[in-house]
Amino acid sequence: MPRRLCRGPACRLPFPRGGGESARNPSLFGGFVPRNPSNALRITLDADAPEAPYEQVRARIAALARGGELPTGYKLPTVRGLAEELGLAANTVAKAYRALEADGVIETRGRNGTFVAATGGVTERELAEAAQTFAARARRLGADQDAALAAAREALRAAYGT
Fold it and tell me: What are the TM regions of this chain, as residue ranges (predicted)?
């Protein structure tokens, strides 16, 4: 039986409490994406599994990213932070992160951290980055999700002439 090593805040969902479609689906334009996503990773390691622990970590993060539970631009926890949370050596988590980066699932931005990479081509990647920037700016301005969505729709209407 798999042993659940994830305890504490790293096991909770990162989305805001309360209702609303964007609370359940952060990929909606203007959805809430917190700065520290370590609480989104629900990783269970199986000590009896034939796969090495780094491979289990790699597979879980890849599944979360490709399944949309970790949206593009989502900041992953530090290697040391995740290693501590899972009770693993830092080099084990670093090996998983290197494998994920080689697969194009995540990207490291130097001292800024490690983020879920955009899938698809250049257009989709730039569009995702623009959406992340807009969402962060709207949040800093104190706009609620409905106001941010309305502003985005109006800007799109003006740009596309519809």
Answer: none
Q: Which residues contact 68 (CB under 8 A, 6 or more apart)?
A: 27
pLDDT score, position 123: 66
Q: Tell me which residue of 136, 137, 51 sits closest to 95, measured CA to CA.
A: 51
pLDDT for res 88: 93
Any residues with CB less than 8 A from the CB of 126 and at least 6 apart, and which?
A: none
What integer pLDDT is reported at residue 153 of this predicted model? 94
11 pLDDT above the threshold of 60: no
Alpha-carbon distances of 159 from 56, 86, 143, rounded to whole Å: 45, 47, 22
Query: How far apart are alpha carbons 148 and 17 in whole angstroms?
Result: 19
- 């780094």: which residue's tokens? 54
Instruction: Return the structure tokens found at 67.
Output: 């399944």
pLDDT of residue 40: 62
- Residue 12 Ramachandran class (φ > 0 left, ψ -120 to 50 alpha, else beta): beta
Q: Residues 76, 61: contact at Cβ < 8 Å?
A: yes
Q: Let me know if 53 is exposed, middle or buried by CB neighbors in 10 A (0-12, 13-18, 19+).
A: buried
